[in-house]
Amino acid sequence: MSATISHTGLVLGRWTRASYRQPALIAFTLVQPAIWLLLFGQLFQGVVHIPGFGNSSYIAFLTPGIVMMTALMTSGWSGTSFIQDMERGVMDRMLASPVSRGGLMAGQLLSSASTTLIQTILVFAIGIAAGARYHGGIGGYLVTILASVLVGLSFGSLSNAVALLTRQQTALIGISQFVSLPLTFMSSIMIDPSVAPHWVNVAARFNPVDWATIAARQSLAADPDWSSVWRHVGYLVAFTLVVGWLSTRAFRTYQRSV
To answer: Domain named ABC transmembrane type-2: which ranges (predicted)?
Structure first.
């Protein structure tokens, strides 16, 4: 365990330094969620007038959803760093060394999680500047940050597993889009479940992105249903642990195939 923690720190440092050497990429990952929030906030602001919509401020309703959407979309690209390492021969040297497989995965994911954290804070800052108001206190913000990081970690793990199994950038991009877009629109990110089609609500019950969105919105409410919040956070934690274990196992499949 001590070796895994030590290796995680070293790998985290490596990916963090690599990220700061690409300022254009950092700027894009921070500006993109702001565009989504302002664009969708203006485009769909009229939905609050639909009978049954449970929120009078669409920007307040949308902001937690965009937080989760950003975490999902950004984490979908996580595996590209592994593919770059494969193409340069770095991955083979890593796996030939005594580095912990768990540390190799965790360090890269924690580096991506730091980006998710910054994006979450940025989206909230823009949402509040645009008029969003929340009465859940600091606890609501912390739960939202936790949920967004869990979304980033879980789908980042899936992206890394796909990268290890396919070893192709085009395949990773295609699979990422195939997964992320349905998960986004079969959730309550942009629309209140009360006015969505019944089949969307049924699908959302099994959607980790919707679990995160529900936990965030309820924790930010004036009178949160904490039992529902922690139940959905628990679902997210379990999902993250399962896909994290599966993605670590993907290293073995990669090693057998090279």
So the answer is: 24-254
